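User: Hey, my collaborator sent me this sequence without any context and asked if I could get a structure. I don't really work with proteins. Can you help?
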Amino acid sequence: MVGLFAAFYALVHLAVWGKDYGFDWGFLASELTARPYLAVGLAGALLLVPLAATSTDGSVRRLGARAWRRLHWLAYPAAGLAYLHFVMAGRFTRAEILIDGLVLVALLTLRLARAGRRHLAALRTQYP
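Assistant: No problem. I've predicted the 3D structure and written it out in structure-token form, which is a compact way to encode the shape of the chain:
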């Protein structure tokens, strides 16, 4: 659900940005090239599209669990790009940037440690 919320938030964020400029696609494209933080944010949002599209149990069955898990590792670069977009926007205090960065690093470290433990456990059962 957190991933779906992130994808929904990104979609609403993009829609509001587009609406603010009257969905003038030429202007919006020029803004993406003129302001790198917008391109970084869009790249992060685009990484969430396949994750949201394959968030159902049926997708896990169709793709296979291994391929589905591999695809969903895109959440990590998406989180990094979202944070980079946040930092590059330059509208936040150093404290906000530092706190959010520390929270992101802590969460990713916990997640990667858990994945590493599972991987090691699987190796131990394969090669006793």
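In plain terms: The chain has a mean pLDDT of 91. You can pass these tokens on to your collaborator as they are.
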